Amino acid sequence: MAAERARRWGFRAGHFGIVGLFTVFTAFPFYWMLITMFKRESDLLKRANNPFVYNEPPTLENIRVLFEETLYGRWLANTLFVGLLVVVITLVLALPAGYALARLAGRWGEPLGIGIFLTYLVPPTLLFIPMSRVIGDLGLQDSLWSLVLVYPSFTVPFCTWLLMGFFKAIPPDLEEAAMIDGHSRLGAFVKVVVPLSMAGILTVIIFTLTLVMQEFVYALTFITAARNYTVSVGVPTFLVHGDVYFWGSLMAGCFIASVPIAILYNFFVDRFIAGFTVGAIK
């Protein structure tokens, strides 16, 4: 009995220990950004100081530099503008494509879905030259619309494959029952399949927003004016001058941009995991 109790306590201690280590590991970057954004430069650069605490009184100077000496607010608005449009385009294209591959393509649906997913694996650097030609022909250089046009080329294939697996997990009997009740195929899709696929749709939204916020290569290549930068390009371009790094402002810019995504992940983490796992195994 005592051995069994000791084994149970040992198992619990190991479980909480692993969870605690993982929590510290994932939370540490946010703690580091938060503490650095309020540190004075002299506190940051003095080697004798403890880097994990404030050795001098905190300051708002780094926040002032970020918002008053750069176009950070404009970059956030640009990122949000591109992200929302790319999410809408991705959902409009990936939802019907994934459903058609899952329900209407017969035995060719699975190979086609895998083929579409494989296009997502093509490195963006290989697509850069043809994409730049398309952007040039359309006259979209130095325009946010160039990013709105380019980003769906790698969000739609992955999200189509993801949603296809998710739609396969929904029993076809539910759609057939809706069609017997008088709905068309489109009506059954909108009123039955889409509400049951919210986990997959939320996964698509989070994945797309995250990709838009962190993408660097295309944003740097197609955008030249500072007022049109997104956060991923504007922050390192204006806050890194040669070998001079404005660490406080850099951490402030990263923290402010990453917190909304982190909150979104935490609110919908169960649905996000369900969306990825169901979409991946079906």
Descriptive account of the structure:
By secondary structure, this protein is mostly helical. The chain has 15 helices and two strands. A two-stranded antiparallel ribbon has the order 1-2. Strand 1 and strand 2 form a beta hairpin. The radius of gyration is 24 Å and the shape is flat. The chain starts with a helix and ends with a helix. The mean pLDDT is 84.
State the end-to-end distance.
44 Å
Q: What's the tally of helices?
A: 15
Shape: flat
Number of E strands: 2
List keywords for this structure.
mainly alpha, two-stranded antiparallel sheet, 282 residues
Q: What's the structural blueprint in terms of helices and strands?
A:
Layout: H1 2-37, H2 41-45, H3 61-68, H4 72-104, H5 109-120, H6 124-138, H7 144-150, H8 152-168, H9 172-180, H10 185-196, H11 198-214, H12 217-222, H13 231-239, E1 240-241, E2 244-245, H14 247-267, H15 269-281
Antiparallel strand pairs: 1-2
Helix pairs in contact: 1-14, 3-14, 4-5, 4-7, 4-8, 4-11, 5-8, 8-11, 8-15, 9-10, 11-14, 11-15, 13-14
